[in-house]
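Researcher: Good morning. I'm working through a list of sequences from a screen, and I'd like to move beyond sequence-only analysis. For each chain I'm collecting a predicted structure so we can compare shapes side by side. This is the next one on the list. No need for commentary yet; just the structure.
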Amino acid sequence: MQLPPELAFLSPFFVEPSETYRTAVWLRSDFDEQVWEYSFDYKEPKHLDWGLTLEDGSLLTAPKNDTLLKGLKYYLTSSTRDAFGPGETNELQGAMLQRFCHACHIVDYLLINGKRFQLGTYGLEGLTGGNLIEILENVAATPLIAESVYNWKERLRGFCLGLLESSNTTALDAVIQNKPSISLITAEQVDEDTLEIPHGWIPKIRAALYLKNLYHKQTNGSQPNTTLISKLLYPETLWGKNQAKITYKILCYNDDSSVFEREYPPAPVTSGLREKMRDSTYAMYRRAIYNIGVLHEIPVAAPTINALQLAEHFTPDLSTTGRFRTLPSDVVFKSLQHAIEFHLDHGQDLTKAFCRIALECKKRNISPASLTHEEVQAIVGEKLRKFGITQLSMAIRSMNSGRYHSGVKGTKDGYFSNLRSNCGLYELIAVYTGAVQLTVGVLMARRISELHMLKAEDCLDGTEQWLLFMNAKSTRHLFGLRRKEARPIEPIAADMIKTLIRMQKILVRIGYLSNLKTLFAVPDFKGAKKLSDSSAYLYNRNLDLFCDYFEMPLNAEGQRYYLRQHQLRRFFAMLFFYCGSFAKLDTLQWMMGHADPKHIYRYITESMDGAVLAGAKAHFAAERLIEGDDEDFQDLAQLLKARYGARDFTTVDAHDLEDQIQELVLEGWVEIEPEFFTDHQGKQFKVVARLMHVPEAA
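Model: Good morning. Structure tokens for this chain:
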């Protein structure tokens, strides 16, 4: 149909679905090809091979299965279409990739269970409402798709035991003798093991995997290559055979360095173990199942409308959305104090020392790993030598010794003792970078993806008073592009950022780097001549080192509070509340300066998610009640006692009390807000809880 120019934008709505769905922005091949090439902004395109064998022994590409093949292909191409029309979702690596993965999981589930569904005989139209509900039930039973769809743990265990049985015992013994580290099982691996293979068999199973070339090197040692293993275990799948799965640490070993990364087990970051899928994720899979109904538009054989509606209305027993645990306020505030003081005392010295190391390596055309301990000590200078620095990195073998080290980092106790004794320059730079991350993370309340992707080149505006970042959830109707936003930044955080930028600019000027990196890029612990761009892994590793360096407190279970950005987002608001309530946090009050508290609070309400701010208010009120400081929360305390039977708040679990307060807020019984006033000391405020209904109504 030819439309006039002014109505040309309606043209996509007049194209037949059978033609529209033959293409997708991620699909680089012709729809009818057996092997699809696809890319979601990957460095190299990936492939989907439709030449699969079905449960009846026939090929999916055989003429008799043509309807099933077309149905599955159309299902994938339609999975990334926008619900608001024939266009596609915006971000290739965001919502579109997510929907594609969900659809691939459903396709693989059908193929893996093809015998029960008799796909080769009845195709997609043979799927009943009960079949679709069964898929949703199994997917919802665990948050791990590797288990719900691929039964990974059982298959991997069976594969390992079968491989052990079929391997030559003499060859296995030879591997163990030549690679002593392959038989080392750490206490942490034993504690975390859920694979349920007798530990006495583990060394030989590792050796068997090694002989089959099923290991690959990672930053923290040799791990089973789960992608290669998946190719062997899932030949019947379209997508899963080419995807990595969960790595079980009991199968990992390390030749070059110790396998530990943290001093203590981490305190949980969510409110309890989630045994089932969260409801928001389940909704995405329910959408993926219901989307099979698009095939009726084409038309291609598909489950009946009634079957799809039954699945759409099915609601399994799901866990509640896992709420991130709120860190104790004193832990975060003390951490913030450590971070700022570490910057003021050592930030300049450490970054300048690294620049001198880089300059020396550039002059001599060597890698930093080639420097001896004595050379490192001479380069860093007298002040840092007295501070404790004796070597470049504790993850580098000594250049003065050729003997075998079972673990470069040594024992866990020794390593973290040396860390706090300031032995390694690179570790201290990572600690300092973690300090900057912590400060910026608390004060800016941004997502981790927005922070670790900050560029040293343009993360500050010309005035150096605004942080520029790409909003992680701003791609809708922007063709997948993130919206660049600016937020005012506290001077101390800006000063820390400028220290890291200054270091990188010097490295570029002397030719050590060709260009500026991400803001939180750090030296490679192995001594390579580079600066490693920040990633989610390195971002969290820097925070872990910071927490171990300053010995963050342990909880009652002996677990350390390792800070994570998603836990810190509410703490700028918490900082504001605490500074208005009591005056014992000198460093934090200094950071807040003498700005009008109304202006600060307006910024908080404009820049923070409502849920994050509500959580901060509830957490603040809970801590005040637990500490007995309830002068401004007496009505709230009475309501809590009447509603939940609480008598002594000092004995109540902080997380439970916070949940109860949030429930009252959501139900409209109470409002927690700052009250602003002016007295002889100037502009002040206090946080109070106001009852929105009289207590008798509760």
